[in-house]
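**User:** Here is a favour to ask of a fellow structure person. Please take any protein you like and set down a full record of it. No explanation is needed for now; the record alone will do.

**Assistant:**
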Amino acid sequence: MSLTNGGGLALGESLFSQDGQTELKMGNDGKLEVYVDGELKWQSDNDENDNVRGVYLQDDGNFLMSKRSRHLHDPEPSPVCSLMEDMRFSSMLITIILNFLSALCQQTLGRSPPIDINRFSIYHQRTVMDDSQNASCPMDPSLSTTERTVFTTRGCVVYGYPSTGGVLRKEADLLDMLFLSLSRSDVSQRSSDMDEEDRFCNLMRRIGATWWSSKEDWIEVQMEMREMTKEEEKILVFGWPTDGVGVWVLRFESIEQLPEDFGRISLAMNMEEKIQIMREYGATFVEDITQVEELHGTF
């Protein structure tokens, strides 16, 4: 969970926890402030006269600023002392921040999901295979390991769970849903049969789904807790001719390379329309599908 620029707060504006005791405020001087029962407990360091870039809750339970921060009135600490202070500070503020995140979810999602403190890796060492069992953010249906589709305000996210581990994720458009034979109005669940689930995952790879070690891992990237790998940044678009021969392929190294009007490809009503738009963006046709590296093992 992250609050960029204080969660979009204007100077002098505040957000409160559900119990009203904790206040997150953007001061008139551009500094982010935390009040408990009206008493100032913490303030961001603003020596460079620049607003705080972001506030993050890490999967280890620590409260992290994207700019350097310190306690009020503290002398400049040594690196070791600073680390110890940050550890004590994060322990003191974790309850405050969890309460605040609950209030934020209430305001942004329309509901306040429960926060299980035992799911933080400060109490449990997460492994790659743990997936969402140790979720670092308030639990949400999108972190489930059984739901196939999650409908959002902007569309639908589809998940696949390969037997080799990790999770495949794709923000699906109309043609993706049709290609995967998924309901466009009702939530779908993953298959309980692993062979069937693997076959579905192969279909997801054919529409350019991205593999992540877990859903939690994807969230951490969105929170800027780590950089994306080249494979995670890569955007793949496939167009499948109706005659069943070959495949059209578009590759982009990252989202920054997408054309400004690329969103029109998601409005295609059928595969022929999609392929035509892909060709306008320079898609290449590969007759022998086995020559497409990203599709190895999907047939």
Remarks:
- Confidence is low (pLDDT under 50) at residues 1-7, 48-53, 56-85, 107-142.
